Amino acid sequence: MHVQLYDTTLRDGSQGEGVNFSVQDKLLITKMLDEVGFDLIEGGFAGSNEKDSEYFERVAQLDLKHARV
Q1: Residue 56 CB neighbours (<10 A)
Q2: Nearest residue to 23 via CA among 12, 34, 14, 15
Q3: Phi and psi for 6 in degrees, rounded to 5?
Q4: Could you give the number of structural domains in the chain?
Q5: How many angstroms separate the Cα of 50 from the Cα of each of 1, 35, 46, 54, 56?
Q6: Positive or negative, the Cα torsion across 63, 47, 23, 13?
Q7: Which residues contact 47 (CB under 8 A, 6 or more apart)?
Q8: Which of 22, 38, 52, 67 could staple 44 via S-S, CB 3.0–4.6 A?
């Protein structure tokens, strides 16, 4: 049996007071979560703002081994 690991750090975690991930931060966190073995990473809200739009454009270029974003 395989338990899928789902992470919402880049979506819910960025809603906390004083938290402001840059696009580069989000890409680095995505790579780290992928390396740990997360299956699904909630990256934010595509098209909701410029930062998330840029993130989704750039994350598509990453060579992720495990995760889907």
Answers
A1: 17
A2: 14
A3: -120, 125
A4: 1
A5: 39, 26, 9, 6, 10
A6: negative
A7: 53
A8: 52
